[in-house]
Write a structure and sequence with these properties.
This protein has 309 residues and is α/β, with parallel strands linked by helices. Strands 1, 2, 3, 4, 5, 6, 7, 8 and 9 form a nine-stranded mixed beta sheet that branches. Strand 1, helix 1 and strand 2 form a beta-alpha-beta unit. The longest helix is centred in the middle third of the chain and has 29 residues. The model has no long low-confidence stretch (mean pLDDT 96). The structure holds nicotinamide-adenine-dinucleotide.
């Protein structure tokens, strides 16, 4: 379906606010709600209409978009806070949050049970992509639902991939980020090893970026300053893609791997390392900043402290 839509947008945080703004900019009517009043007020300044509750927003809309922290928030809203019950039958629910695959499937089931249609459509691209309208969406759900959502996803992003049935978007998201978490650790370990062998960052970069070590973690988000001037390493690892978000995504991948009996030793190790980093030095750093922790731990070990403390 084309044309102007009435969209309920629930969750106007770092990602949701700019996404809602872009929908307003494209001429859609957006009715917003967030638990935090200052965020709702900010969205109103950008042309979003304020609703008194999430259910009120959904009641007036023909599409409901959620951009929330985790699965429990999505399921809580859908069921306990009456979002599904308030909407008109057949309303399309698009959840763009990054949540557990099982929760995403639960959300699809709850929506279908209430006579609604649903799509899981998590994103990649971060706040910068949300602001620029250049996100990548990975969608799970029916063909018809994806086809209907495409015009809206095109306003908020540059690419939308239909990955399969319910939960497939979330599955693609956590698999991709498991690759990213592991490859950032590999690149970071290689730089620290190179340092100990007297190899300059630039020399290792010049070789690996044009050889078989080439990957996004090296060529775009290089963890050491110098070779890639735009990478967060050049600004003291300010995010970028914050380490706690990487830890969250790797945690989702690890629990899915465990639940499925999948042999994913590197993914589980990456989840463990990022959980520790995100709780400590990486709390407000880009995920590439883990190179600093690896370097410090290596120095401690070399100095004779095997615990690296
Ligand atoms: P955020 O915490 O800034 O925003 C979430 C918002 O949801 C908050 O403003 C919160 O008040 C609101 N909220 C929570 N429960 C609510 C409820 N019941 N009713 C109404 N509002 C409610 O988080 P974010 O950075 O915008 O991320 C949102 C989602 O996008 C997360 O799942 C995250 O993993 C994912 N994501 C984030 C990024 C990023 O770079 N920030 C990148 C990709 C994916």
């Amino acid at each position: 379906m084309n044309g102007t839509r009435t969209i309920a947008f629930i969750g106007l945080g770092h990602m949701g606010a700019p996404m809602a703004r872009n929908l307003v900019g494209a001429g859609h009517r957006v009715i917003g709600y967030d638990l935090l009043p200052p965020l709702l007020a900010g969205a109103v300044e950008a042309g979003v209409e304020a609703a008194g509750s999430a259910a009120d927003a959904a009641a007036a809309a023909d599409v409901v978009i959620t951009m929330l922290p985790a699965g429990r928030h999505v399921l809580g809203l859908y069921k306990d806070e009456g979002l599904l019950a308030a909407a008109r039958p057949g309303t399309l629910f698009i959840d763009c949050s990054t949540i557990d695959v099982a929760d995403a499937r639960g959300a699809h089931e709850a929506a279908a049970g209430a006579g609604m249609r649903a799509l899981d459509a998590p994103v990649s691209g971060g706040v910068v992509g949300a602001e620029a309208g250049t996100l990548t969406f990975m969608a799970g759900g029916g063909e018809a639902e994806f086809a209907e959502a495409e015009a809206l996803l095109a306003v908020m992003g540059k690419k939308a991939v239909h990955c399969g049935g319910p939960g497939a978007g979330q599955a693609a998201k956590i698999c991709n980020n498991m690759i990213l978490g592991i490859s950032m650790l590999a690149v970071s370990e290689a730089f620290v090893l190179g340092e100990s062998l007297g190899l300059s960052h630039q020399a290792l970069f010049d070789v690996a970026s044009t050889a078989s070590g080439q990957c996004w973690a090296l060529t775009v988000n290089c963890p050491v300053p110098g070779p890639v001037p735009a990478s967060p390493a050049n600004r003291d690892h300010r995010p970028g893609f914050a380490a706690p978000l990487m830890a969250k995504d790797l945690g989702l991948a690890a629990s899915a791997a465990r639940a499925g009996g999948v042999q994913a030793e590197l993914g589980l190790k990456a989840a463990e390392l990022y959980a520790a980093y995100a709780e400590g030095a990486g709390k407000d750093r880009d995920f590439s900043g883990i190179v600093t922790t690896l370097r410090e731990q290596s120095a401690s070990t070399a100095a004779g402290d095997p615990g690296g403390a």
